[in-house]
Amino acid sequence: MLRCMLRTKLHMATVTESNLAYEGSITIDETLLKKAGILPYEQVMISNMNNGERFETYVISGKKNSGKICLNGPTARKGVVGDKIIIFCYSYLEDSKAKALKPKIIKLDSNNRIKL
Q1: Known catalytic residue: 25?
Q2: Which fold has domain 2-91?
């Protein structure tokens, strides 16, 4: 049996930009993607702490060390600049591996820098 498990989470990211005139997705600083182990075009779930919206999209890599978190296309309607969001990435794992999984939780400050 496969289980859908949380693999990694970017906790309390701040939306820095919103671009309605784009096909869709979320742009995330390349440094954060690498730390989280999220690949460009990978599916993510986003939960907006400010308005309760929860939605899925795919990831585009943003400029390294920019702190950029941009809602693109239709996702731009799900939040505004300054909103706090949580970005979840899941994986399907066999039962035995799922039980041993330790999700990577990355906490961010208000500038989308990794808290130590």
Answers
A1: yes
A2: Barwin-like endoglucanases (2.40.40)
